[in-house]
From TrEMBL:
This is 3-oxoacyl-ACP reductase. Belongs to the short-chain dehydrogenases/reductases (SDR) family. PROSITE patterns: ADH_SHORT. It comes from Lactobacillus paragasseri. Gene3D superfamilies: NAD(P)-binding Rossmann-like Domain (3.40.50.720). The lineage of its organism: Bacteria, Bacillati, Bacillota, Bacilli, Lactobacillales. GO terms for biological process: monocarboxylic acid metabolic process.
Amino acid sequence: MKRAIVFGATGGIGKAIAAQLAAKGWSLYIHFNHSSQEAEKMVAEFIDKYPSQEFFPLKLDFLAEDEVIKTTVASLLPLNAAIFTQGITNYQFLGSQELTQIEKIMQINLLVPIKITSLLESQLLKRKHGRIIFIGSVYGGQAGALESVYSASKGGLSSFAQGYAREVASAHLTVNVIAPGAVDTPMNAIFDAETLNEVKNEIPAGRLAEPSDIVFWVENLLDKRSDYLTGQTIYVDGGWLV
């Protein structure tokens, strides 16, 4: 049985990934922090549609103490893949941000994903085609003003994936980053319609990405034929910034 954990599964991209993987025969852990009702709803729907697969909600606060994270990871059934879609940002000048907010962004977007990867390593190395996929950002390759901390966290994911992939490549555990540009998800709902239209006009493809545009590349990286692609950051941005 193929089993994956989707971190941030109740978010726009995470939900689309989970739905497609469930349809493709994967059993899933549906990770959430605050959105317990949405996670439970997703699990119930998946169980109803795919009764031969297993689905579990999994609560974990990425700001929790290390012991909580260790205990949670230790409780998981064997996994073939871990997909990290969770992430936060804070759109303002660096000097206006609280120090605790800076730390929170780095913790959720970069530090805890690295810690969880470390904790999952021993079991993923046992899989014939183990996979770790991080959802990064185009800003990890070309940082954005007013999102400098966010950009640093996503750029850090790309650097980590490049280095860590070399450590585990001989075991066919691949580590890659998918870096979207602007995606039509609730995370971008903080911007008004005028601002979003300005962004669309800057994108050569002429539109924001749909979550399905990202899901396509997740599916490709999960395929067993992708063993030779590792340590890469794949920019899915409609030709916008890179």
